Structures are given as C-alpha cells and as structure tokens.
C-alpha cells in the first residue's frame, strides 16, 4: 500500500543541501508583494525541522512555487515528472487533497512542510494517521472498499511499467480486496483508524506493504 511524498522537480526538497545563505531568509521575511510564510520560530515549533532545514526546504519550494503556494494542477504537473513510465495524475491529486486541509485549492509552504515533517520524522502513529487520511478520500473517518480500490489503482497507474508483476485492473482489485479484508476486523464493510492502525502494526504482510509505501513516499 504505497504512497508518494509530495515532491517538487529535481533537485527535490530531499536533496537540497542544508545551510542556505542568510540572504534567502531575509528575502523570505521581507517580501511583501507575494505570499509570505510565517516566522521560522513558528515553523520550528510545528515541525521537527531545524531553522536551517526549513530555510533549505523553502529555498527549493520557492523555485517551483515562487508565490509561496501551489495549485492542484501545478502539483500534478510537478509530481508526474518523477513517474515518466506511468500516470501519476490521479494519485498526486489524492496526495494534494490530503495536503490541502482547508480545501481552498492552494497548498501553502506551511501546509507542505508540516506534512513533510509528519511523513519523514513523525511517530509511527502520526505517519499511519496521515496515510489513513489519504485513503479516506471523502473525509468521513472511514475507509470504504471503493476508496481502498481507488488509491491502490492510482498507485499502480503511477508506477506503470515499473510495477512487478505487471498490473491490470484485476490485479489492483485483488490487491485492494485482500488488504481491505485484513483491515476490516469486525466485517462491517468499513475500516476505522483503529482497525487500520492495529493491522498495520501487527500484520507482517501489511507491514511490508507499508515499507513499500514509505519507499514510494520518499
């Protein structure tokens, strides 16, 4: 059950060298005509990144998103560059929706870096909650069989020719059905976060899927 970290075009945020010059920070704090992120101290408090790491990540973010936020279509465009052998549009759209908590059609730098902090440095439970929210497409607090299939199929579409074994609609359906049956512990046709959390922590096969998730995410 893989997932992909919100990423920008190469060099990616992950590969940016830390220790950006102070001039970039001054530019950040003095810009008035464009979107201006909150203070570094506030971002340090709400994430698990240092000041220098936040400066470095912002430096990479603003290269692709100079206005300080990214639209859904732009996000899909940037995301798709990492998966030239597949179609990442549907999956990246779901990632975007998970990032866009206020549903205003723009993901800000703060939203981006808070999510990145959870994905890369959050506790196991924090990461599982983020993944659960991705699969809970309609935000009702449950994962339905259709939602499970939608995400699994979008992952297969994104991986394209890199999938092994090769994937067709039946493969995605079988995979989604198998995972859902394991997670629906009370057989009520819905997966709660508690069920999701328990199975992800205790089932070896699902744990391996989550490792694939983490690999794709990062």
Architecture overview:
The chain is mainly α. It is 59% helix and 2% strand. The protein contains 11 helices and 2 strands; from the N terminus they run αααβααβαααααα. It has helices at 22-30, 40-46, 51-64, 72-80, 89-99, 109-121, 124-135, 145-159, 169-183, 193-202, 204-217; strands at 69-70, 107-108. Strands 1-2 form a two-stranded antiparallel sheet. Helix 5 (89-99) crosses helix 7 (124-135), helix 5 crosses helix 8 and helix 10 (193-202) crosses helix 11. The longest helix is centred in the last third of the chain and has 15 residues, at 145-159. It is globular and about 45 Å long. It starts with 21 loop residues before the first helix and ends with a helix.
What's a concise summary of this model?
The protein is an all-alpha fold and 218 residues long. It has helices at residues 22-30, 40-46, 51-64, 72-80, 89-99, 109-121, 124-135, 145-159, 169-183, 193-202, 204-217, and strands at residues 69-70, 107-108.
């Amino acid at each position: 059950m893989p997932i992909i970290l919100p990423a920008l075009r190469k060099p990616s945020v992950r590969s940016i060298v830390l220790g950006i010059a102070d001039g970039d920070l001054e530019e950040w704090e003095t810009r008035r005509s464009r979107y201006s992120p909150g203070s570094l101290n506030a971002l340090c408090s709400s994430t698990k990144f240092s000041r220098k790491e936040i400066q470095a990540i912002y430096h990479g973010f603003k290269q692709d998103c100079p206005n300080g936020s990214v639209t859904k279509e732009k996000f899909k465009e940037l995301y798709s560059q990492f998966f030239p052998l597949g179609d990442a549009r549907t999956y990246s759209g779901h990632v975007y929706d998970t990032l866009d908590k206020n549903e205003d059609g723009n993901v800000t730098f703060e939203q981006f870096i808070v999510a990145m902090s959870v994905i890369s440095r959050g506790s196991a439970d924090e990461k599982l909650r983020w993944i659960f929210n991705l699969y809970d497409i309609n935000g009702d607090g449950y994962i339905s069989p259709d939602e499970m299939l939608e995400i699994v199929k979008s992952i297969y579409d994104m991986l394209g020719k890199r999938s092994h074994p090769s994937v067709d609609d039946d493969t995605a359906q079988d995979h989604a059905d198998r995972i859902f049956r394991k997670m629906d512990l009370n057989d009520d046709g819905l997966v709660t976060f508690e069920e999701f959390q328990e199975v992800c922590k205790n089932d070896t096969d699902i744990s391996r899927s989550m490792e694939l998730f983490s690999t794709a995410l990062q």
